[in-house]
Each structure stands twice: as structure tokens, then as C-alpha cells.
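This section describes the prediction task in plain terms. A model, or a person checking by hand, is given the sequence of a single protein chain and must write out its three-dimensional structure as a string of C-alpha cells. No templates, partner chains or ligands are provided. The sample shown here is typical of the held-out split.
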Amino acid sequence: YRGMHLEDEKPGAEWTDKTPVSTSSSRQTGGMYKSWITTDNPGKGHLVKITVPPGSKALSFPNTIKLPGKGHQQIDQEAEVLLPRNSRFRVTGKDKDGTVLAEMVP
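The expected answer:
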């Protein structure tokens, strides 16, 4: 998921992100970022659910890590998944609650 501003949310619309793309496996986290965009720019924020093809490069940050002698310590509640720079995406539709559906184009 990613909270972001989209110029075009119609099926078939494409965009490329030239920087590494921060996403989340958590719908709640994506919605939080969408709400921040909407606060600054009413009506401009979108929640985008991105499908990534199997075998794609991505870096996933765990929600918890185990530190020696300290048990589990919470380090990141965002469930971040970082996609490579120059990733290309295509809108495939919308679900019933208005979430934009997109796919990463290999």
C-alpha cells in the first residue's frame, strides 16, 4: 500500500518513480500517509494497493527485531517494503471502497 497523489487514476494510466519507492504491507499505514497528503491538499490523496510480481526486487523491513539480551524490541510499525528506483506502475482499477489498484510493471 502507498498513500500518494496520483495525476491520473484511470485504468491503464502509468507512472514511473525515479527514486526508491516506500510502500507498506499494512493498509493502515498506507491510509495514514494518504490522510497526510489529503490534509495538505484536499481531494488529492489516494490509497494505492500495489501488486508486485513474484521475483521482483524489494527490501522488506520487519516490524520487530530480536536484540541480544533484550528480547523483542519494536523498531518499525510501518511494515515498510522498499521497491527499486525507476519502478514503473500501471493502474488496473479501483475496489469498492475507492482504493486505487495498481501493478508494478516488470
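For orientation: Residues 4 and 46 are 5 Å apart (CA to CA).
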